[in-house]
Amino acid sequence: MNKDRTRLVFVTIIGVALLVVALAFISSSTAKNSSDPIEISMWTNDTKASWVIRVTEDFNNAGFETASGRPIVVKVDQLSSGDVFPKILSGELQPTVWSPGETSWINDANVVWQDLHGRPLTSGPCTPVVYTAIGIGMWRPMAEAMGWPDTPIGWDNIVDLAADPEGWARYGHPEWGQFKFGHTHPDSSNTGFLAITSAVYAALDRTAGLTPDLVKSEEVRDALRKLELNTFHYGRSSKSLAIKTALRGPGYLHAGTNSEIGVLATNHFQGPEMRFPFVFIYPEGSVFWSNNPFCILDADWVTDEQREAAGIYHDYLLSREVQEIAIEEWLRPADQNIPLSGALTLDGGTDPRVKVETWGVESVSGETAAAVLDVFHEEKKRATVAILLDTSESMATRKLNGAVQATNSFLQAYARDKDDEIAVYIFNDDVTRLQPSGRVGEVGESLQKTVETIFAEGNTALYDAVCQAVEDIEAREAEAEAAGDPRLYGIVLLSDGQDTNSQRSESDMFGCLPSGETAEGVKILLERIANRTNGKFFESNPDDIQEVLLDILYEQ
User: Which label site among 24, 84, 146, 488 has the fewest CB atoms less than 10 Å from its CB?
Assistant: First the structure.
């Protein structure tokens, strides 16, 4: 077992600061027009958000109207494809239009909505507005060593390289070491879900007709097991994972799932800080062409006039001028007769000779999508996570309430990965490991009840808590390695950041920490801990901690 592969202990910090946000309520003194605007809302995935926001501003300024003469105003928001429907389901979001990255998200949502409401969420056609391919981003020298761009590279090549203990030596570069692969989490990321589904198709040597039974076959499980056991990092969004890889360099990851636009945009915006540029690899024989469907919702909150306005906006997005702007944003136009411009080039990192639908695979049903996610969770690399919860007097009331609620929401969300391990520590004058701890499937519910009973008092033994958690994690890592159980390891620290009662010094604490790839200049103690361990620092108010913990969950 390669020691570097399992030693991925990181510390993620959430600075629980009680932030005061001033909200400016702006009212217009201008009298309303006789025809009040009709407003529609659209939620788009991250991939095409830049293009949509850019052209929607022009749309709103162009004076488009409904048949009754009401001006149309479109409000655009962006969120990862997998995060939108749960918010629609809870009533938090009520959009007019939803445009995720791919039709599978709509299929899945329609199944659930049909069961709840007796009709699908979208009853009309969901037509594509732009395309982008889903595949693999890789550092150019490494891709060229594998034969890019003239030699096709498939998922079998990626899986075999990831599982090869000789690593890059098989391609003549032993100096690059073990292949480091990463991908975004399919529960949250459209790119992550489609990439995993693409790998499923490749394992079966199919391009269509994927069913739940086929997904659960041993061929698929074996391929995903090899891939996941050799995955170094997950991420919640392809953009954040690509940027982190770009800035931390090849030592962090060698390749990761991404979209064509994601690779090219990262080269453009992060290029000066990158060791090498990325290139985009179309997985031979199984490319998901993310079709970005435009779906007008068949929901009670959408009026007939809003549907009319959404149709006008849809036609605008498909106009030639607007589609040509999409190419400038590294997207493929829905109209394949529009020639590609210089934004999509080999020098830029992609192969414009590859046309939309090349090696294309079929979208899957909601039931099949659920099976893909089930098998992923069953075969993914297991994780061991420690949560350190500051219960000192300075965390009293709202801070601790938010931290407790977020911790238990994290434990509930984590329940799907029953073989992952969890431990919760609280610290004030002393450090206490709450019981029970262990496999999530065995202790999760009981641990939630225990967390509900904690309260704030005393001082803050922050340094002692960090050292104890790291020592416990490293001991568990040694056991798992000896048992042939490769895992990801993480420590999450929720604190307002001031040590007042440790037996160990700050220097002692930093001596306990494993070194991450980046340990450069930082601002405050919590950021220093995060940077030292290749983790993240979040400053969050108590109401936002739950969302931050979800970010962390999707990196496990």
Answer: 24
Rounded (5°) CA angle 268-290-343: 30
| Same domain flag for 298 and 210 | no
CATH for 423 = 3.40.50.410
Query: Token pair 């969120």 is at which residue?
Result: 79
Among all chains, which residue has been given the structure tokens 């529609």?
40
Distance CA(171)–CA(159), nearest Å, equals: 14
Same domain, 107 and 236: no
pLDDT digits (tens, 9 = 90+) for 251-303: 999 999 999 999 999 999 999 999 999 999 999 999 999 899 999 999 999 99
- Which stretches within 349-432 are classed as H helix? 366-379, 398-414
Which of 171, 44, 167 has the alpha carbon at shortest distance from 105?
44
Q: Is residue 338 included in any domain, yes or no?
A: no
Asked whether 310 and 319 are in contact (CB, 8 A), the reply is: no
Q: Identify the domain containing residue 369 by its residue range.
A: 132-290+361-377
How many other CB atoms are found less than 10 A from the CB of residue 266?
24
CATH number at residue 103: 3.40.190.10
Number of H helices, E strands in the chain: 20, 19
